Structures are given as structure tokens and as C-alpha cells.
């Protein structure tokens, strides 16, 4: 079973939305003081990485990389940036 590009894109957007809410520097409050508030704050950066093919398979002559895939390879790279 394959997952469509649209579904993959929606999953990435949902993940980024969840992470952006989690990484807020100021806690979300409703304006009231609460006595039993627990929070965790981690200083630092979040690094998100991804691996995906940018080139086609190499030829049988021993070249490591084939032609650049403009539709799938470059678009995925641009989306990641």
C-alpha cells in the first residue's frame, strides 16, 4: 500500500503544527492563576532532518548517481528547506 504525496504532505504539516505549539517560549494561559501547574522547559534548538533520494539510480557502468530527479528529488529538497 502506498501513501499519496498529499497524505505525506498533510502529515508533515500536522507534525510541524504540533511541534510549533510545543516549542513556544511562553506558556499558554487562560489568564487565571493555578496552584498545581506543572511545566517542562528545555532550552536549545530543535533540529529536524530528512533523507530522501535526489538522483536516479546510477548506470551499470559504475557511476554512483544518475540524473537529478527534478519532480521528486528537487521538490522534496525544497520542501525540507
Automatic annotation (TrEMBL):
Keyword entries, A-Z: Glycoprotein, Membrane, Signal, Transmembrane, Transmembrane helix
Superkingdom of origin organism: Eukaryota
GO molecular function: G protein-coupled receptor activity
Signal peptide segment: 1-25
Major localisation: membrane
GO cellular component: membrane
Subcellular location: Membrane
Protein name: Glutamate receptor
Organism annotation: Soboliphyme baturini
Amino acid at each position: 500500500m502506498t501513501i499519496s504525496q498529499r497524505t505525506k504532505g498533510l502529515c508533515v504539516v500536522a507534525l510541524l503544527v504540533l511541534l510549533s505549539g510545543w516549542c513556544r517560549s511562553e506558556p499558554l494561559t487562560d489568564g487565571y492563576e493555578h496552584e498545581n501547574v506543572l511545566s517542562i522547559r528545555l532550552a536549545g534548538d530543535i533540529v529536524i532532518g530528512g533523507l530522501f533520494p535526489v538522483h536516479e539510480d546510477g548506470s551499470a557502468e559504475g557511476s554512483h548517481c544518475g540524473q537529478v530527479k527534478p519532480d521528486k528529488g528537487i521538490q522534496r529538497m525544497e520542501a525540507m528547506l
